[in-house]
Structure formats: structure tokens, C-alpha cells
Amino acid sequence: MDQRGSRETRTAEEGPPAHVRCTPPPAGQLFEIAVLDTTGEDGRPYWHTIGWGIDKVEADSIAETYVNRPMCPYDAARIRHNGTLVGLHRRQA
Fold first, then answer.
1. pTM for the whole thing?
2. Considering the domain boundaries, does residue 9 fall inside one?
């Protein structure tokens, strides 16, 4: 029995079966979201990647959620695109 999936892609107008692509955009198009973790055993803060945004707006929203959440907020969250810092969010004092 051949269990290899079909790589054929159809539009909605063509009817079923439709294949949904689950491959994310190339990494060069994504925005890295990292938080400043100050709970390390050695007492030194370090940046920890928590996820990726598909655009700057989504990345900003995710970063703000992590610094403003009520339980265990992070001190800061940064957004990088292709290695360049494009956003920094800090917890309100």
C-alpha cells in the first residue's frame, strides 16, 4: 500500500481534496521573539527565544504579552529580523 501523501495543491474552486501547506515561511521572513530571563541558576540574565512572528505587528503583540502578563512577566522582550534588532519591549515599572 502506498502511504506517501499527495503533494498536489488545488484551489478551493477545484474542489476536494485540497492540500493545506504546513511549511512555515522561510526563516528570513520571520521575526524572532526573545525574552530576557533573569531566573538562571548562575544569577546572570540571558535572552531566550520564545517564538517567531510572521510580521512585525504579530511579533510586537506577542512580545508585549510576555512583558505585560499578570503572572511571571519578563523584564524585557526583543524582536529581531535577520539578526537586526527591530523592537524592544520593557515591563512597566
1. 0.68
2. no
